[in-house]
Amino acid sequence: MVKVGIVGGTGYTGVELLRLLARHPSVRVTAVTSRKDAGLKVADMFPSLRGWIDVLFSTPDEAHLQECDVVFFATPNGVAMHDVQALLSSGVRVIDLAADFRLKNIQEWEQWYGMTHASPALVAEAVYGLPEVNRESIRGAQLVANPGCYPTAVQLGLLPLIEAGIVDTSRLIADCKSGVSGAGRKAELGSLLTEAGDSFKAYGVGGHRHLPEIRQGLAQICGQKVGLTFVPHLTPMIRGIHATLYARLQRDIDVQALFEQRYEQEPFIDVLPAGSHPETRSVRGANLCRIAVHRPQGGDTVVVLSVIDNLVKGAAGQAVQNMNLMFGLPESSGLEIVPLMP
Amino acid sequence: MVKVGIVGGTGYTGVELLRLLARHPSVRVTAVTSRKDAGLKVADMFPSLRGWIDVLFSTPDEAHLQECDVVFFATPNGVAMHDVQALLSSGVRVIDLAADFRLKNIQEWEQWYGMTHASPALVAEAVYGLPEVNRESIRGAQLVANPGCYPTAVQLGLLPLIEAGIVDTSRLIADCKSGVSGAGRKAELGSLLTEAGDSFKAYGVGGHRHLPEIRQGLAQICGQKVGLTFVPHLTPMIRGIHATLYARLQRDIDVQALFEQRYEQEPFIDVLPAGSHPETRSVRGANLCRIAVHRPQGGDTVVVLSVIDNLVKGAAGQAVQNMNLMFGLPESSGLEIVPLMP
Amino acid sequence: MVKVGIVGGTGYTGVELLRLLARHPSVRVTAVTSRKDAGLKVADMFPSLRGWIDVLFSTPDEAHLQECDVVFFATPNGVAMHDVQALLSSGVRVIDLAADFRLKNIQEWEQWYGMTHASPALVAEAVYGLPEVNRESIRGAQLVANPGCYPTAVQLGLLPLIEAGIVDTSRLIADCKSGVSGAGRKAELGSLLTEAGDSFKAYGVGGHRHLPEIRQGLAQICGQKVGLTFVPHLTPMIRGIHATLYARLQRDIDVQALFEQRYEQEPFIDVLPAGSHPETRSVRGANLCRIAVHRPQGGDTVVVLSVIDNLVKGAAGQAVQNMNLMFGLPESSGLEIVPLMP
Amino acid sequence: MVKVGIVGGTGYTGVELLRLLARHPSVRVTAVTSRKDAGLKVADMFPSLRGWIDVLFSTPDEAHLQECDVVFFATPNGVAMHDVQALLSSGVRVIDLAADFRLKNIQEWEQWYGMTHASPALVAEAVYGLPEVNRESIRGAQLVANPGCYPTAVQLGLLPLIEAGIVDTSRLIADCKSGVSGAGRKAELGSLLTEAGDSFKAYGVGGHRHLPEIRQGLAQICGQKVGLTFVPHLTPMIRGIHATLYARLQRDIDVQALFEQRYEQEPFIDVLPAGSHPETRSVRGANLCRIAVHRPQGGDTVVVLSVIDNLVKGAAGQAVQNMNLMFGLPESSGLEIVPLMP
């Protein structure tokens, strides 16, 4: 059994990790930390876990994380970078669900996140945890930077086009829509049902932290800078991301076949039949990315529709997938969940 | 492996059965019938099942249901009563998720459902599939009448009080709220997002078909007729039932202890700590009934809050639980699902 | 033109007052206070008001409220009681949308609201602003205590029965459901779309501050204490309250006629035809209470369904109705709004 | 008083027309037709109109539409084209809210709408009712083709850029999101709360009927064919359209000033301050289009965010605005509505 610790178990990625790990056959959750709620039963805060998770929240000191095999950081940005080195030194492997180790360019990270990076040396060492790109590196990684939710949906949707070198990478567009859980479990005015409900809006058009992360991932594939316009929107639902991606084809090609071949062996990517429109609910609760490719009116604009559950393939599920790779477990272990529909 | 057939697989109880059975370790779904959609892959209608369910819809003739060990009827009311006898005669066991075999009083059934019953003899034989009341009879049953969603939530909430004989059974009140999936997967005006969304209403105050079913269940326990006012409401959510139950205590008693003791051994009933308010989402997707008991201001009115997922413990999950009992499988087999939250 | 000031304009009752007053033909809003946001244009916080409301938030000092004809307090409980006396002394009339002057029993108020009352003398003087009960007193009032949202829906639903003396007032039940805006425009975890969305729950079963307010109102009508069980619930919608009320008839009577006669002259009460089920959306945005009365199965339990928009007839609309009465304006002035459907 | 008839009053655009006209100071609704519901009070179908609209649905024969000054067709596509000529010949002016007279190219219309056009001669005569483009022609029109909802939001968002001739019109992108009421008041599976709720999807990526309408409108402005990729999406809300528009700037220009100047005199277009993100709810129930313009990272991609209420500025409100122009009434008459927030 892999001994697992979770730092910061009171947010949505934390509780989602617990939902997945509760049923994982090869894992035991030994500690869930929360300074503020230490002593409280986790299931008292999250009644959905009653009967599944018996541990109490503990302080980081009580948690004995150095005795874990792996520690997940489900903390706000800027926390893990302070604590990871000590764990790594004790031989504990780490998966950070926040953004601390995602951007290789420290200066860019500091600009977008507005703080000084506390352990730049670890950034170079960290493996970006998108298995469909970095599977082999993840297996051997001590420190995994789990991708952001938008970056997962966008990169998986554009990957085949960019690898094939058939689109103009200087003018990509990612028009993305997220459910409200993407904002986290925080008491913020804009996330109230009365504010975000029955309404739709864009946000962060001027610049969003996931923009440099997506650009870095795409640039790495095509070997040069990419031009990307990224517009995130808030949609009145709980879970789910829908990325609508636009690119200009430079060569006439069967895009449907391209996508099907690229993802043929991928356990968590589902390329839908030509002409499909994936719904976010078709992946609700599951570690899946479903994708459809279109060429409206047969023109040279390719439109990719890519959906994930932001809390699963966009966060906790992908983290478990990474853990499975790191510990030589079956990649689908604990992730064999049928999406909840309706 | 238990060979399972599903008659009427295009509604919400049908697709929910498939979600649960897809992961059931001792079951193989061999046929899903739909006259209208015969030949179509089930997963083409329900993309959430892609990768999990490979069968095609078939006509009843093609389905060879008589070779199944058990057949679930996920059909509208009035269908199963025509087809069940032939299956039973072939040695196939049957679980009807509709109302055909729920009411023992044929005349009452015909009044509420507005049709002549096609096989009244089978009604007497059928076992009412509420395991918390009839577990032993279910084990040996050939034909199970799976309870309605409201009746499940209401009976489980009132059971301990009525068994203990401590409330006035002549003036019970069940104020119930259901998500829209309770209306089924039918193109009806009143179930549109634009009609049922962002609004709340009562319906059927003059009389609802679940009223006689609840009354029958409660009367059986206390050995006499009960007086029940049942008011169902439609609430703008997808899944979930919340029953708020009112009864007059005739004896001073520790109701919290009463409920805890009654349900101590029940795998799918969770009595919450005193003072709790269960949310429907705390059982979303899971075969659970969570219950809290209150005595406001310490008075003699007891208020019970009982929540289920109408498609799981209120329909397909309970049906699988019944199947497990009938075939000597572990009662929780295929039902070990952590609720989806948020 | 009536000169109007609003204290505390950043909450939902404040912005709703502004929506209504923006179109009121006999009113000019001269000041909207907010210490925190002084200097900001009101329409910059609430873009829905762009083009309708030009004033800036001001500090209470800058607001010159003593020059207003009437001041609305749309503040949290416990604010108005400190500030009202000075305004009244300047000849300004006051309508408090919070609870400070609703309960005549100071001791009871202090228990439920957890603070010492700062101006108990004014409580006696204040008129409870339910026009359907106190219309004449409101006309002459200097200080109006605007009723709570639940108390409005419940009292209007029970009024005809209690005035007629035909129900057992010792065992009334009010099962109430509210949209999330009832919790106000505050960054609270439980009001997030991700927490309150797609779920349903009761709350405050042990005791809710609106209980003594309802009891006081009903007792005043029947001249004796009433026994009331009040269970509020949170339903995943933005606006609207649905009260489902249960009482035992002590005399056989035509309840439909009773309600129609009682409310025949009331401009904002709509008794629906027998057999109806009012939807909350049928009053969305309007100063209306729609009511239906049922006697299920012709028994002696009467079920009343009463719906309002909690922000209009349950708060700001009723406050404007009170202002109209106080200033001799047509009672419907500024309130002639067709509900928004769908 | 302008005498108004409405053909097809049972859909959402019909009931929305009634909401607006009920409060219009210069209008009397004399007939609302519905073959199926003739004899029923309109307010019995739409309780939100109780107290506001007294007329009954009538058959077209009973309606004496030729005595009206103006008739609105709120019918499905393909109805008005059969009935309009007779009305025009009687001197009645007509506003068609459906698509029958929107496309000047008859052949193109017949392809997209799958039927033979019944009165192609009238198409040439009809004025496309977008006041911000065709105000003067509308004043004199006998027959107005009221624009579609998506076309209104998209054209108003792109208009200033295209008029100014500063963007590449060969590669425009319109990524649009609509609430479910855009699908009409029809019992369709895909519009159920259980299907469209808590989920997000694109649809019609291969081709949508509003594409040729938008292309025609834009081409008319720039005097040449435009290249447009149009992707509509369904978002889980009741009302509202959000268009996110992408174009490549060919000249460096102050786009904020451009938009502000273009719409300075427009009563129903609101250009938000630089850096804004309009929410659909900020126009809920009102005849408004709010627009924000961005140039992310100061690049040459301009992003326009344009929101309307699809039932108001996208349908019934715009129709009333057109009627006001046609009859020399103040353009805002009956449209002075403050958006409903929250």
Short description:
The first copy, chain A, has 342 residues and is an alpha/beta fold.
Q: Which keywords apply here?
A:
homotetramer; 342 residues; alpha/beta; Rossmann fold; Dihydrodipicolinate Reductase, domain 2; 7-stranded parallel sheet; 7-stranded mixed sheet; 11 helices; 14 strands
Give the DSSP E fraction of chain A (strand runs of 2 or more residues). Answer: 15-25%
Largest beta sheet: strand ordering of chain A: 3-2-1-4-5-7-6
Q: H/E order of the elements of chain A?
A: EHEHEEHEHHEHEHEHEHEEHEEEH
Using the 3D structure, state the CATH architecture of the largest domain in chain A. Answer: 2-Layer Sandwich
Supply the CATH class of the largest domain in chain A.
Alpha Beta
Q: What is the C-alpha radius of gyration of chain A, as a whole number of Å?
A: 19 Å
**What's the helix count of chain A?**
11
Structural classification of chain A: alpha/beta
- Quaternary structure state of the chains depicted: homotetramer
Low-confidence stretches of chain A: none
Q: How many domains would you count in the coordinates of chain A?
A: 2
Structure description:
- The structure is a homotetramer of 342-residue chains.
- Chain A has a seven-stranded parallel sheet with strand order 3-2-1-4-5-7-6, sandwiched between helices. In chain A, strands 9-10-8-11-14-13-12 form a seven-stranded mixed sheet.
- In chain A, helix 3 links the parallel strand 4 and strand 5.
- Chain A has helices at residues 12-21, 42-45, 80-89, 106-113, 120-125, 131-140, 149-163, 193-196, 210-222, 255-262, 312-326; strands at 2-7, 27-33, 57-58, 70-73, 93-96, 127-128, 143-145, 172-178, 201-202, 228-234, 241-248, 269-271, 289-294, 301-308.
- Chain A is an alpha/beta fold.
- Chain A is 30% helix and 20% strand.
- Chain A is built from eleven helices and 14 strands.
- In chain A, helix 1 (12-21) crosses helix 11 (312-326) and helix 7 packs parallel to helix 9 (210-222).
- Chain A folds into two domains: 2-125, 3-Layer(aba) Sandwich (Rossmann fold), CATH 3.40.50; 150-312, Dihydrodipicolinate Reductase, domain 2, CATH 3.30.360.10.
- The interface between A and B is large, with 36 and 36 residues.
